[in-house]
Each structure stands twice: as C-alpha cells, then as structure tokens.
Write a structure and sequence with these properties.
The chain is α+β, with helices and mostly antiparallel strands. It is built from 20 helices and six strands.
Length: 522
C-alpha cells in the first residue's frame, strides 16, 4: 500500500517533523505574536516610555564627563576596591559631615558590583546610580498612577525626569543620591501596609543619610491610624503587630555591622551619635515648635531647588502660587471625603509637611541633598495642582518646564573630573621616574582620595607620608580665590611633614597647578 500523505491545510503539513515546536511556521507565528504584543505594549505605554527615554538621556548623556568625582567618591571606591580585591569587609559606611558619625555599610555593598563590572572604572558606580535615578522616575509614575491616576502620574514623572536637581543627584556616585528612591518606596510600602518591605526600604534610606529618621513619624502615624481602625478586629491587629515585630527584627539585624564596629572601637559611633543629639547647641533643636518659623523659608528653598531652576528672583512668587494651589487641593479633598484618592493626598501632605518641619530642626546650612527624602512628593503635589486647576495648572506646568530646561547643567561645559584626575595622575607617575614619592593636595573643598584611587589602580610608587618621607613630593593645587597655591612653607600637613623643600618643577594641567618638590639642604 502506498504511503499516505498526512492531511494539510493550505499545503502546510499539520503533523510530522515540520510540525514540531522548532518548525519555521511555529517560529514565525510566535515571532508575529511577540512582535504584535510588543507593538501593542508600546502603543499603550508610549507616554511613560518617552519620559523614561528622556530621563535616561538626561542622566546618562556624557556621564563620564559630567559625573562628579571628588573626595567622597574617591574615598568610597578606595574602600570598595579594597573589599573586591583584598576581601576586606567593611562594617561602617561613609562618615557624616557633622558629628564624626558613620552611616551603615550597605551603600558600599550596593555599588560594589558596579565597580567590579566596570573594571574598576569610577564611572561604573555613577552609571549604576543613574539607573537607580531612572528607576525612581518609573516608580514615581507607577505609585502616583495607583494613587491619583494616569494624568497626574505622567505629569509628576515628567517634571521629575527633567528637574535639574533630580538629574544632578542621579549622575554620580554618592550615598545621599539613593535617598529619593528609598524614601518613595518606604512611603509606598507603608501605604500598602507591607511593613517588612517598608523596613528594608528604610534601612537603605538610613544608610543613605541619617535625615531618613524624619520618615519614621510618617510611618508611625499611618501605623497608629491602621491599628485604631482595626481595634474591633483583634485578629487583624494581632497580624499587624506580628508583621511590625518582624520588620523591627529585620531592622535590628541591619545594625549588626555597626554594632560590631563599635565593639571593636570602644563605642566610637554610639558615643558620637549620643554627643550629636545631646549637645545640640549648633546641630539640632529638640523643640519641635521652633521649626514652624523656618517653614516658609525651607518651603521656598525646596521649591526653588527642585522646580524653579534655582532662580532666586522669581522663586518667592512661584512658591506663593504653589502654596495657594496646595490650599486649594486641601479644600478640594475636604469637600470630596469619599474620593478614593483622598487618603493618599493626606499621606503625601503629611510626608511633605513633616518632612519640612523635621528639616527645620537642623541648625546648620541646608543643602539640596539634605531633603532628598521629599524629592518625589514635591512632584506629586505639583502634578495634582496642575491636574486640578486646568488652565492655571497648564500655565504653571509650562513655566516649570522652561525653568527646568534653562537650569540644566548641559548648558555648561562638563567638569570632566574623572578624566582630569586620571590625566594628572599619569603625569605625576611619569615625572616620578619609578621612584617613591609622597602626595599632597591644596584645595578649598576637596581631598586627595580621587588621586590616590588612580594611584592605587596604576600601582604607582606613592607612599603614605605617615609611613615614609620620600625623596620627592608632588603637590596638586586646585586653584581657588581663597587659597594660595605656593607650596613652600604651606601649612597643609602633607607638605609641612615633608620638611625643608624647594620646587624642582612646576606646570599646569587643565587649570590645575602641579609642583614637584625635593628636599633642600639646610
């Protein structure tokens, strides 16, 4: 009997070898379905995709040239490099600028893979922080859409994506730069009553900066409201307490590295923290009511930095308008108590208000990165104001876009600090002629860690002045109107400890003065 041909449809066999999962027909159909699904996904989400592309460009464009690479960045990657190459664990993180305290170590562990996979190029951690900044834009969109709808989410994420300050603190490696994302996730998980995840987010926020402590009252108030609302349901409150205790336990575990450090160093960090909060003459004010008088100034500073491109002349007027719009929102939600988004409005209002009041307790100068924990909420509030006030809001939004564009750092030449630092190090190594040398830096607001990092990577013959006085000393001077670059008789410790010296060579590189000093016979 002749062999029968299997049934077919349109000349294509339905069984046999050509009907396997790997057949060209099935592959083609799967590809069409996949491509069609992708096209549909893009059509549905083109707005946020475009915003993310804008955010990516503004944070990654020429990041090697725009990324900051100063003392803190050099210090951090020296420590992380030592961990990756020598296995030396670290139990504390970066030191604080005031109080001689140390943060937890988790930021160092967070950036370690980025430094490793970038072959120990300092731009690796900077790119990682930029990616976290882009993730912050998406998280802001996702959370705001869930709370207030698509339009508010798109406005908030777009304005955050183009904000000069948000961009500035997203394109270089620094521990405060992860605070906006951590704070946003903390508030979101609190609103979802996911206390374990909220605890993890708070741990990383606290390892970013101790000002994250301001977030705790917001979480505490929300927890208390939830506990009271469930007072008739003992089972729910029991579950709430169990989850809270687990979250507290995870937080306690996160403190183990710092506790071990203090055990080894006779309570150094604990003593510094105690002194910081007990001797408050120049640091913090425990009288909460005194921060109310600072509220208007801080409100204006935050808005000016984040929204108005640091335009001091128009900032007070725009801040006044923003304040009126927030009052209007408050009145709106009072009238619409049954609006499902009202509870989220009061949550972010508490986040914003308590965040500013908490900042008002600090007696020192307030820098932009200090209020990273309220970066996201500012844009949520602005987006709500714009969405609720129609024509006025649209005009306000256009003004914010113009101010953000004008305030972008791309209008200025990049500082190229990584490139410049490496070039200076190469020149010093060349001038050292394979002999040992000491290194010193004269600068207004920097220290020599970035230069030392490249010295370590290039295996230069640099020796620490504490261990050995070499036959030559290279002095780097970063010119500033307030400093004298003359290294002779300069009181800087690294120069003074070298002893009686004379200038053997002097030259300039990209605006930086370099000196080679040798010993002078007395």
């Amino acid at each position: 009997m002749p062999k029968q041909t299997p049934p077919s449809c349109g000349g294509l066999p339905l069984s046999g070898e050509n009907n396997s999962k790997n057949s060209p027909l099935r592959k083609g159909v799967a590809r069409l379905r996949r491509d069609g699904g992708f096209v549909l996904f893009v059509k549905r989400n083109w707005s946020i995709i475009l915003i993310l592309l804008i955010a990516s460009f503004l944070r990654l464009y020429r990041i090697y040239d725009y990324a900051e690479f100063l003392g803190d960045q050099g210090r951090d990657i020296i420590i992380v490099r030592d961990f990756l190459k020598n296995g030396n664990l670290f139990f504390i993180g970066p030191g604080t600028s005031i109080g001689n305290m140390y943060l937890g170590p988790f930021y160092y562990y967070l950036i370690a893979p980025a430094l490793f996979f970038s072959a120990f190029n300092p731009v690796g951690p900077a790119i990682f922080i930029a990616l976290l900044g882009i993730a912050t834009v998406y998280c802001l969109y996702f959370i705001t859409r869930k709370w207030f709808g698509q339009n508010v989410a798109l406005i908030a994420s777009f304005l955050y994506a183009i904000s000069p300050i948000a961009i500035k603190y997203s394109n270089f490696s620094w521990n405060p730069n992860i605070m906006p994302l951590c704070a946003l996730l903390f508030i979101y998980f609190v609103s979802e009553s996911k206390w374990l995840l909220a605890s993890i987010a708070f741990i990383f926020a606290l390892n970013s900066h101790y000002l994250a402590l301001v977030l705790l009252p917001i979480g505490g108030i929300f927890w208390l409201i939830q506990f009271i609302s469930h007072k008739q349901d003992k089972q729910k409150n029991t579950l709430l307490i169990k989850r809270t205790l687990l979250a507290a336990f995870i937080f306690a575990i996160s403190l183990i590295p710092q506790i071990l450090f203090d055990i080894k160093h006779e309570g150094q960090n604990a003593q510094a923290m105690t002194e910081f909060f007990t001797k408050r003459e120049t640091t913090v004010n425990i009288k909460f009511y005194k921060s109310f008088s600072k509220f208007p100034l801080l409100f204006n500073q935050i808005n000016n930095d984040l929204l108005f491109g640091k335009n001091q002349e128009i900032a007070p007027y725009f801040s006044a308008l923003f304040a009126l719009l927030i009052i209007y929102l408050f009145y709106f939600y009072l009238k619409h108590k049954n609006d499902k988004s009202s509870k989220y409005f009061y949550l972010i209002l508490a986040w914003y208000g308590l965040g500013i009041l908490g900042l008002g307790l600090y007696k020192q100068h307030i820098y932009s990165h200090y209020f990273g924990y309220i970066f996201p909420v500012v844009f949520i509030l602005v987006a709500l104001c714009i969405q609720k006030t129609k024509i006025l809001g649209f005009t306000f939004m256009l003004a914010l876009i113009v101010l953000s564009i004008l305030g972008n750092d791309f209008w200025y030449s990049p500082p190229s600090q990584i490139r410049r630092t490496e070039k200076i190090v190469d020149q010093i190594i060349d001038q050292a002629n394979n002999d040992d040398f000491n290194l010193a830096l004269i600068a207004k607001q920097n220290y020599d860690a970035p230069y030392r990092y490249f010295m370590l990577e290039k295996e230069a013959n640099m020796v620490d002045t504490n261990n050995k006085i070499a036959s030559q000393l290279f002095v780097i001077c970063e010119p500033h109107p307030d400093i004298d670059c003359n290294p002779i008789n300069n009181p800087e410790w690294g120069i003074a400890s070298f002893g009686w010296a004379k200038i053997d060579k002097e030259w300039d590189t990209e605006g930086v003065k370099l000196f080679k000093l040798v010993h002078r016979e007395q």
